[in-house]
Fold this protein.
Amino acid sequence: MLTIGILGSVEVAGAARLCGIKPKALLVALVMCANECVSVERLVRVLWDGEPPRSAIANLRSYACGLRTALDPAGATVVFEAGGYRLRVAPERCDHLTFGRLASAGGAACARGEPAVAVDLLTRAQALWRGSGAAAGVPRHGPLGCWLDSLDEERLRAVEDLAEARLAAGTPRDAARDLAGVLAVAPLRVRAWQLRMLAHHRLGEHDLVDAVFQDARQVFGAELGLDPDPDLTRTHRSLLRWNATTRSPAPVQLAPSPVRLVGRDATVNAVVDAVRAREVGRGPYVVVADGPVGVGTSAMALRAAHELADDFPDGLLYMDLGDLGADDPDPVARVLGRLSRLLRPHEPAVDAIEAAAVVQRFTADRRLLVVADNVAVAAHVRPLMAVGTGCCLLAASVSPLGMVDADRRVHLAPLADAEAVDLLAELLDTDRSSRSDLDRLARACAGLPLALRIAAARLIDQPELPVGVLVDRVLDDRRALAEMVTDGLSLRSRLGAALRAVDDCVRSALPCLVAPGELDMVDIARRLGRTGPACQTVLDQLSRIHFVVPVGPDRFRLPRFVRLLATELAAGDAPRREPSSAVEGHVVAGRYTEQQPENCQLPQP
């Protein structure tokens, strides 16, 4: 297939090879005016600088004949008409015309406010160039010099458009790199200097904003003996004023990145890659990470946030929403109030409406990353989506938060046995414990990183405690949850907190489902005293927080630690508040004569 390339060295694919500078120069002149007639007089000035030889017309005719012979079999032809020559060729066979079409469409997309589309089009346009100048090696005589200079100018303008689109898309680092290349070959381009200062400003590299301007001042002074262009000076002053009068955004307010995060590298990398590839402009990028209690969604979110620190120079914020229950009366006011205080720590508290305005105003043109941890329900996340379109929200929850319009979802499962043993081996002195002991402890902890870390901490705090003894205690259903406590961490407390994400009647029904093995729908209906929608509501809500696990068609089981918590609730051993509904009162009071209730009546649907 014929392609004529002049974006770099002159190349003709799919046709006979061209030899000699003059035939190539003629081809470049004709392809620059593809499908238009170029006069003989103009072509002579292209081929010869100064006075042409007496044989110029004959030589031109010979070169044109050679082009015709080379191109005709490939579907293009050179014809003589009206005192000149015309190259008849399909526009898509000429790389400079394809470049012009992509560059024009990319610039238009950027002007329409579609930065992701613009970046794609302009990147494809730039990829067509195979060198720093058009028609490399071909003398730029006469009008050909103007045509090729114009094409080079079009390329530089397209790079500037690409940099502007990258800034709008939230990737100023790439924009700064592109602009450095432009200024290396064309140091007097005012727009490139302006965009480069803006790129460093967006990156938070405020010292480099002034350094770039000083470089521009030196270049304009050395090349032209003039001060920088007034527009460039105004841009510099505007950015300096912005830096001087704007409060620095919230600093990094994250806990340190987890030192040991076994088995989660692929998930972290997937989240980081997705955030970096996001399309800015449609709203904040939202990632929801869910998994069972203790599986490590918080640690994964923190690791990803630290990996993304350079991509969000305006701040990294952490919000623990674990104290908000599903029935919180005004989550919008509480969540936005907290975020506004994080953004303006020295300002007085404001009401919900003003807090929303503060958040929108403060984040409109900034790039912040917010980690929302221990999210119970979607209503706690939705207020945070008021942040600017350049921001990102990482939400960690035991629930998938299906009502959140997430751009990316990740589910964390318990660690595989080998991964759990690897984590224990990193945390513990391996000389103290055998591989078999670690295997048993890993299985006893059900692959939950929280349980594994608590067990490891217990062994570190009690050097005299044999690993096997702790394993036996954790495997003992009567004391397992009591063993999963250390230094302020409690698996029982975390499980209890997760129950805040479900309705009161569902929370009260959990003890009714205590069973040593699997339950089918008949068992569940008998235990709950209901069939149909009310029974399904219980299963749906408990499944959402991973307290009930499907094991087959209409068959379920409770994970071990959930079952142990439910057993404590059924026996009245776990701390409880006063019943808040008739159903809950029935469950609390109706312990019957056995630990496992025979019936738990739910309200009518």
